[in-house]
Amino acid sequence: MENINSHIPPIKSHTKRIKNNINTSIIISKQTPTNLILKKDKSDMILACSRRFKKKFQNILPRIFPKINPLVEQHTCGLMNIFCQFCQSLNFLAERPSDGRFTHCCHKGKVKITQSPYPDYLKNLLSNSLDPLHKNFMHHIRSYNSVIAFASMEHKFQNYQAIAGRLQHPANSDCDINIMRHLDELIRQINPYALSFKTLGEVEKAELSLAEHSNILLPKINMIFRGDRSSDRRRYNFPTIDDVAMIFTNDDGEPPFKRDIKVYPRSNGNNLVILNVLSPNLDPMVYPVLFPHGDPGWQPNMIAEGFENSGRSKISMLQFKIARLAVRQNIFNPLLNAGRLTQQYIVDSYLQVEANNLNFIKFNQSKLRVEEYSGLMNYLASDFSNNIYIPIGRAVILPSSFQGSHRNMQERYHDAMSIVLKYGKPDLFITFTCNPTWPEISENLFNGQTPADRPDIVSRVFKIKLAAFLSDITKNNMFGKKLAYVYTIEFQKRGLPHAHLLFIISSEHKIDTAEAIDKFVYAERPDRTNNSQLFNIVTRFMIHGPCGILNPRSPCMDNGVCTKNFPKDFINDTITNTNGYPLYKRRDVGFILISGKPVDNRFVIPYNTYLLLKYNAHINVEICTSV
């Protein structure tokens, strides 16, 4: 029993045989004997339990045989082939709510987004890897988009000399002039903003001729982009020139209606006009590659059509953005095919949503009843009375419900401390990191894409696997009966999400001895011959660095010392408490070459074999009972 080395996964079928690398088999039988029988015959071990004890047996089985190393079935999200009954978006089965109505696409049929037909030329550049211009366009797509964007309010569409001049800019030096010419011609033909600039030029020319003929001063000529399109009942149709902009002339240059963007034909110096974040013109003007037809974005009090005669209702900016980013079968979505421009658009959309939420809080302080916040107003008053520096202006108090605010973080901290006060110190500290090569991610990427191009798929798959991971520990009691847990999700610089989790285990299942630690946590390289699958996972995900003298330029190095305290020392037996954390068993059994560098057990990150085999990702398991 002591030589077996992993965990049995939760039993899901009535009869199941699991074989491990040392020829041990376990049979869970549907037979109903009155007693639990444990029988050992050479390398076979048979367990038979009554049906009325089976559910309880599933929960305690990992603790009875915590070191058995079975052929663990890897977790899978399945195919992304579950259709939304309203918008026909593609989803995983685990994402379907109990009522079967999906919320992360059309918000249960509430949001119906119309999309202009995407030009074949741009579609070919985005998705056809055989096109000789595809690679250049995708690699420099942000440069191409910036060159033809309208956000700077400059004359973008004059002639090919202007294109050549823009190509001389260092940031655009690698752009292809043929692509630029085709983009120029395409945008001139179909984009309402480009046509508006052309109309403005024509008006300016006519007014200049009239002024010279009449010997009068040239009046101010302005172009105002309409900020509120709610008065136009055709706002769901393809936009035309007059749907987006209006040309007028008068003596003082003031427009006849509310404005949010003003463009002058002749610039006075380098004056810039700030684009309103709530303007429906923001997205089509900043991202002409994604919205070549000038499709309007979200605006305050936007009314959208629903599905199945559900009527019209107000939708939020977040609902609108989510509906645009949904994956739908046989519908080309440029927002999901633009590579680095997709990443920029998603980040920009997040900032827009946050700015809109902050704007709401700013102008609804009375509705939020900020003056009722306990102790807050007294604290501010004491600062004023003590002459403590407070910026001049109106104070805006963020409620605790606003994610990431100071009060929100403080409230979460107090909740976590209350849990520790009631249930005791945490026993397990686990880091669960997304694996960008999970089949569910790679199978749902479009042609030529990398996981970095699709943060939507990466986040969705990670969320499903994290839920299954939590279920193993909290419901299946893999480490023992769970009392409480807390976790936080972060994103790495490369965009990969990872979760830090703390678990508190019941007193009868505390992992506080060297024998118990060795049953659940390992810090040694597995044997390549007996378990090649686990060996490959550990060497791929659970090797630190290497750093130190093997790689002094490793990111973890600071003043010649590893900030993670690697490499560790060799140790033959686990020591339970050294400065709060245990020292895991790390025997000197030689080294292997990884990236041409010799790596031994001193660089192995502590792990649990069952979790690694099931989730195929970086999962660092640390015992912190003695901290």
Written account of the structure:
It is a single chain. The chain is of the alpha+beta class. It folds into 3 domains: 1-71, no CATH class; 121-300, no CATH class; 410-623, no CATH class. The protein contains 19 helices and 21 strands. A 4-stranded mixed β-sheet has the order 1-2-4-3, with no helix packed on it. A hairpin with a 2-residue loop joins strand 15 (557-558) and strand 16 (561-562). Helix 5 packs across helix 6 (177-190). The longest helix is centred in the N-terminal third of the chain and has 23 residues, at 192-214. The radius of gyration is 31 Å and the shape is globular. The relative contact order is 0.09.
Notable characteristics:
627 residues, alpha+beta, 3 domains, 4-stranded mixed sheet, 19 helices, 15% strand, globular
